[in-house]
Structures are given as structure tokens and as C-alpha cells.
Amino acid sequence: MIAYDVELNKLRNYKPKQTKQADFEEFWNGLKVENQKYPLNVEVKERAYSVPGVKVYDVAFDGFRNSRIHGVYVTPEVVQEDAPAAVIFHGYNWNTLQPHYTFKHVIQGIPALLVDVRGQSVKSADKNSYENGGAAGWLTQGIFNPDQYYYTHVYMDCYRSVDVVRKLSGGSDVYLEGGSQGGGLAIATAALQENILLTLCDIPFMANFEHSFGLAAEGPYTEISHYFKVHDPQQQTSTKIFETLSYVDAMNLAGSVTCPVLLSVGMIDPVCPPSSAFALYHHLGGPKEIRTYREYGHEVPMIHEEEKLKFIYSYLKSM
After folding, report:
1. Residue 5: pLDDT above 80?
2. Strands 85-89 and 43-47, sheet pairing
3. In angstroms, rounded to a whole number, what is the distance separating the alpha carbons of residues 245 and 146?
4. What is the dihedral angle through the alpha carbons of 201, 17, 12, 301, rounded to the nearest 10 degrees?
5. How many angstroms separate the CA atoms of 95 and 192, rounded?
6. In the prediction, which pLDDT does 4 show?
7. 3-state SS assignment for residue 71
8. What is the CA radius of gyration of the chain?
9. Rounded to an integer, what distance in angstroms lies between the CA atom of residue 183 and that of residue 201?
10. Would you please indicate which residues are annotated as catalytic (active-site) residues?
11. pTM given for the model
12. How far apart are CA 290 and CA 205, in angstroms?
């Protein structure tokens, strides 16, 4: 096996100090209060779909403060009585999830909403005006002001997506799933929203930022390195950069996640360092399980889908 990051036996106790600012809770509570001012304005349009017994809808709703967010709602024709709904978030600039991805939920009578992250989909344009542009992608857009930061808006869009799926399904029980960026979004949403049943978080991005950007060999963390290299070689703005990132660091939000979480880690991941996933994991505030895959990088084996199904069943069987 290729050695990468920190040895697994050391990671089992790796719990770095959180980097929360003094007003961390006040910041997010204020945004949730502000969110109440904005109606969802949900629109739904059915798609023709080739699989009998499955209905697929294009969904649009108002994002936080601005922008229309697109999603795809997939539901069985017959929804299981008292069934929860699932919300699924995609990876960074990698929205390839198709309706069939939801079938592991749909065959159980559970509807699911696939959410397109603003700016990362042709159907979810980002209409926000940032105080500064991105140095390479989205990670540095608005990064000098946490209230105007790109991911502050994305997190609140995801928060609103739970309200959308509750409206569409007619129920209140929701669980979350996501990988890479989607894993970080799932954790953030579980921390900010109320009454989430469980969360499935694979190879998460958005965790332990200052540590991760120094280790990642590729992927979105390197946008921070690119920013410093091109725009601030002496790193005079580093304090402000990491202060803003601390508000969206999933490690800092993890303590507010009280629902059960299943988290996966690829132990030779060059995109999201394994240590960052363990940092997030050890700060989670509720029941949790972790699956490590020694020969895997920024991916998980197909057997992990079976692990997720067992995890879902273990918590939903008593509903």
C-alpha cells in the first residue's frame, strides 16, 4: 500500500482542536433567522422516464438571498407509508448524479432529492455578487467576508433543500447523503437543520482546512495554494482567509451533528486527506461509525454501498 498522510493507528485518536471563531454559533443562528424571510417558491415539472414505477421531476427553488437552485426529485409511484425522504449532494464541480443513483432509496419506498450546487451546474446559476472573485474555482469567491462567502450561501441553500424535500414528500423525516464536497455539505446540513434522521458522508471535503490545504496534492483544496502563489505569495491575508474558512469548516460544525453518521475514508486520498476526515469524525456529536479503505484514494469501493444500506436499515427499521 502507498503510504499517505498519517498512519491509521494514529488517526484513530486524531482530534485536533476546533478553529471556531467566538461568534461562530451567533453567525449561523443569525443566518437561519434571516432565512425565514425568504420563501422557497418551489416549482416542479415531471420528466418522462423509462423505468416503470418511478417518477422523476425537475425541481427549482429560491436559494438563500438569491439564485434559483435546481434539483431532481425521484420518487416511487407508491411511497412507503411514513417513509422518510433523502437529500443527496454532489461532489465539487462534478455533478454527474443521475436519477438511477437514488434507486437504493427508491426501491425502499423512499423519495430522494438530488441538489445541484449553485454555480456548479448549468441549471443552478449563482446570482450572488461577491466582493472578490475566485482565484481558480469557487473556494475563494468572497473569501474575505464570511457573510458574503460562496460556501456560506451554498450551506444555506442546502439547509433550504431539506425544507423543499419536506414540502415535496409531505413528511418531516429526512436523511442526507453526499460524497467529497457532498459529504461536507451533508455534515453542514445535518449540523444546521433540525431533526435529521441520519447522514451518509463519504470521503468528505470541507474539513480541517488549514491542515488539509497543506497536504492535498490535487483537487479544490489546492485553490487556496493557487491563491497564495499567484495573489499573495507572502501570505499576508492568510489570517483572514482561514478565519472565513473556519465558519464553513465541517470539523467546526461537527459537534452540532447529533444524528447517526456513517463516514468513509480512502486512506490514500490525495484530494481530501484522510486525517481531515478523522478530524471531522472525532468531533461529531452523535452516534457514528467509520469505514476505512486502505487501497482507495478519492473513491470508495462498491461494497461501501452495501454498508450504507445496512446503516440505513439499522436506524429506519424501528420507524
Report:
1. no
2. unpaired
3. 8
4. 20
5. 23
6. 60
7. strand
8. 19
9. 4
10. 180, 269, 298
11. 0.96
12. 16
